[in-house]
Fold:
Amino acid sequence: MYLTLKEILKNTRKGKFAVGSFNIHCLEMVPSMIEAAKVKNSPIILQISPTTCKYIGFALLSSTVKELARETGVDVALHLDHTKDFATIKIAIDNGFSSVMIDASALSLEENIEKTKEVVKYAKEHGVSVEAELGTIGGTEDGVASNEGEIRYTSPEDAVKFVQSTGIDALAIGFGTSHGQWKSKAKLNFSVLKNIHDVIDIPLVLHGGTGVSEEDLKKCILGGISKVNIGTELNVAWVDATKKNFKNADLADSCRDLVIPSNDAVQKVIENKIDILGSSYK
Ligand SMILES: [Zn+2]
Structure:
């Protein structure tokens, strides 16, 4: 079934599991992503950056994902990842996305609240969920987290004010993870997570999941993380398989046959993550 983010994360806190939110990098990989969830009997969130949305097309994406959800019977949410401008968010909502993320985390708390409230109002009118961010998630250099000093942990006091004033459905927090990290592992601050979890009752989101070890992912879920974002690892798997497949390709080879192993590689990564996150239906 095609669900909102709020619906798909509904039982995560009580059930002590997280639902994986996996980045679509190209349209080719989408059926394999949903197939992974089907094999594991798990819900799945497919998320996509504004840049990739423009590459594939908002309408094509949402119609493809909705049709695959209907065909396979898998519970799927389609989520717009990190977006700063309301215009792009509006396009996603108008094209049938079931969830969006407004990322105004670089602004002051007051400005972040104002921008997020504007998005929540429009999204709620259309039955769409909203994720927002407070604090900062790090960046990387060549796959290695490079800016520990730049990570601003989310403050629990600010989080309470933010969630109460905006009415969001899920909160992305900064507690040591970094985007694009795949050659090293993140150093997480579990007490920051605990302090936020103690005072916030909506689902909490971990960004930069590729850079978190399996052991730490499990600890995060026990500590109250409901949604785990995995993007980089899928891109790495797809490109790695593609490099191998195309190396000895003959010009007469079918391009379809050449990308099947790349899509299979993505499926394998997702199946493994679902096991770690514990999201298979009991
Ligand atoms: Zn992110």
About this structure: The radius of gyration is 18 Å.
